[in-house]
Each structure stands twice: as structure tokens, then as C-alpha cells.
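Here is one record:
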Amino acid sequence: MGLIIDGKEIAQKLQSDLVSRFRSLGRVIRICEIAFGQHEESSIYSRTRKKIAASLGVQMNSMNIPDDADQKYAEERINELAESSYDALFLSMPVPHNISADRLISMIPYSKDMEGLGSENMAMLMHGINSVFPATAKAIAYIVEVLGVSKGSEICIINRSRIIGRPLAMALINMDYTVTVCHSRTLDLKRISREADVVVTATGKAGFLTREYVSEKSTVIDASIVSDGGRITGDASPDLKDFVARITPVPGGVGPVTNVMAFTNLYELVSGKRL
């Protein structure tokens, strides 16, 4: 049986370190979540963040925008928050179909962009600086670092989204890894992933990653969260834990680290220091 990478333990250590860092700022940091309507998915996400915020001494509030609001109304609310005394803002998903999330994200000042999704913070990655960027990508990069993966190692990312694949690829390149980004149109995907030292998968397809995609030496980082027949699982086939060298479980792997990593973004924004 391979090593099960304990994301909860990694997250707890990271969170403990952040407690003293936030305390050293000498003031209460205030953040605001922007959410639309009432959705179970975003409610769980919000409760988790509020719990972490409380442990760090961060004051987290929420602005709820009605599901039937139009784009203009939503933008006016974002503008109000952007000009307020809040230290940082973040947009909870999902948003209604008639609302452009990209437009709302672009209106959050880069200095308050806790999710790291704005163009200014994303551009920092292109300039070789790993600082404030999307929390899931940042969590995966941190896990790679904690595992002590040798510099230059080949890392295959099966995802090209702006939240995971693209920022993660740039972050890992900045960390001196050899990166291949794969997707649904990639030719010979199984060979590419099997030959990589680390496979990061985030397709959202339960059981997608089977033994054909990996080797006994592979480290698998599963960044998917999928509801499959009433249970929460990821991309990795259940039997991979008995086959590969190391693997993150779902739940309990990337997720807990992602939740805390958003607050490393916050600390970097308000302190001006890179972790």
C-alpha cells in the first residue's frame, strides 16, 4: 500500500503557523464574502472559511446578493465593497447564469483579491513570482513542496482551467519543475501521465484515473471532488492507493489545504510579505 498523503495534517500545521502571523499584524483583519442566493455548496464553503477565519482572529462577513439580481446591481455591490474598509474580498460560486463572474472578479482590486483570480495577481505568476494565486493551485504546489519532490521532476497536470491547471503550471515552472499540461484533446495521455513522477488530476470524473495512467512510482495528487452514488470521491480509482507510491485521498487531501491556503493569500495581501 502506498503512502496516503494526509491533507488534514498539512493544513493544520499551515493554519497553526498562520495564527501567529496574523497576530503579529497587531490589528483585526476584515474580509467579506460575496454570495448569490442560498446554495448548499456555497454554504458549506462559507462555513468552513468562517471557522478558519475565527481561528486566525480574522473577521469574516458576507454580502448576499439575490439570485434574481442583474449584472448592473451586482457590479454596484462589488464597487461598494471595493471602496470599503474591508481588507479583502472573495466571490463564492456558483453565480446565476445571467451574471458574469469574470466581470465581477475583475472589479475586485488586486490588493483585495483574496482568491488571486484577478489579472494583476495572475500576471505575477507569468513574471516568475509565486505569491497570491488561486487557492487550489497554491495548495497543490505546497503539497509538492512538502513532499520534497526533487527539482526538475516531471509533473503531469490533467486540467487546464484558470483555477487549477494554468496557474499551477506556471507556479510549478517557477519552482523549477518540468511540467506538462494535459486535457481532453491530449494525444497519448496515458503514456504522458504514466511516465511522469507526479500526476495531478482534476477532471471531475469519478474513477477516471486508473492504473493505466500511472506507475508504481507515481505520486498522485487528486484535486477533484465528485459526488458518486451518495459518496464523495475524486478522479482516482479506489485501487490506486494499493498501487502507486503516494496519493492524496478524497476527501481529506487537497481540500483541507485549499481552505487554509486562501488565508495565506490574505496574509500576503495585508502584510506585503511572501510566504
